[in-house]
TrEMBL record:
This is PDZ domain-containing protein. SMART domains: PDZ. InterPro entries: GH2_GIPC, GIPC1-3_GH1, GIPC1/2/3, PDZ, PDZ_sf. Gene3D superfamilies: 2.30.42.10. CDD domains: GH2_GIPC (cd21180), PDZ_GIPC (cd06707). Belongs to the GIPC family. It comes from Culex quinquefasciatus. Residues 64-144 form the PDZ domain.
């Protein structure tokens, strides 16, 4: 089975699964078969049996860890679910990563030095890590599976009202670890950034019928350090967003949302 067809099957499976426990598909980090534990050997792939139990693991807090690559090998074994998410499967004892307690098996690798790796296969992510020069410092952004167990999952209300979600947090904070051991919880987005992301999302909804905060955030990230619309357009064309085929006029609209947010012209 191709990775593309596996991805489609996982998406089709995770969507109704999310309905059953009243969480969105995008909130599901991964699913395991026949085990509620974060066990990457039981990661849901392309095949399930009629008697299999499926356990959904929600996205927890994102964290960014600054790592000094002091050895050629980091000591990571990486796997993926065939639907665009790469995970840490094993950590070698005594390795560089093993000495960093904040990195755990089951963490999803989202970015390497600001480069989004969602959509890449595990071997592509492993190659990127291998290509980092020994002795250099890099930042890895991870999303850990929620560790609150099943206390937040309840049967659907008969009346159709949504359950109150407990202990999930705002999802707008990131735990950042420096190579010197210091750590801090930082707001994911300041007001200007959030206004820009909201404006981009509104444009996506108006022009394309897409309401996707993650996509809007990715577009914002591409434009946040650009000084003109040409560089912004080139950044989009060089990214996986090129597949959307945004028109020049639409890119100008997106760039307008970025610059308006920078200059405080958006209202919350």
């Amino acid at each position: 089975m191709s990775s593309q067809s596996r991805a489609v099957r996982l998406v089709l499976l995770e969507t109704p699964l999310g309905w059953c426990i009243e969480i969105g598909r995008k909130s599901i980090l991964f699913c395991t078969l026949n085990s509620h534990k974060v066990d990457m050997s039981n990661l849901l792939g392309g095949q399930i049996g009629l008697n299999d139990f499926i356990f959904a693991h929600k996205k927890g807090r994102p964290k960014e860890v600054e790592i000094v690559k002091s050895e050629d090998a980091l000591g990571l074994t990486i796997t993926d679910n065939g639907a665009g998410y790469a995970f840490i499967k094993r950590i070698k004892s005594g390795s560089v990563i093993d000495r960093i307690p904040h990195i755990q098996v089951g963490d999803h690798i989202e970015k390497l030095d600001g480069v989004n790796v969602v959509g890449k296969r595990h071997y592509e992510v492993a190659r990127m890590l291998k290509d980092i020069p020994t002795g250099s410092t890099f930042t890895i952004r991870l999303v850990e599976p929620m560790k609150s167990g099943f206390q937040g999952i309840a049967p659907r209300n008969k009346g159709g009202a949504k359950q109150t979600k407990q202990g999930y947090g705002s999802g707008k904070e990131t735990l950042r670890f420096k190579s010197n051991g210091n750590a801090a919880i930082e707001d994911e987005h300041d007001d200007a950034t959030q206004c820009g992301i909201d404006a981009i999302n509104s444009l996506l909804d108006s022009f394309m019928g897409i309401n996707d905060t993650e996509l809007a955030t990715q577009i914002w990230d591409l434009g946040s350090n650009k000084t003109n619309s040409m560089d912004f357009a080139e950044a989009i064309d060089a990214s996986d967003l090129e597949a959307f085929g945004f028109t020049d006029d639409f890119i100008i609209e997106l760039w307008g949302a970025v610059t308006d947010a920078r200059q405080g012209r958006h209202k919350r």
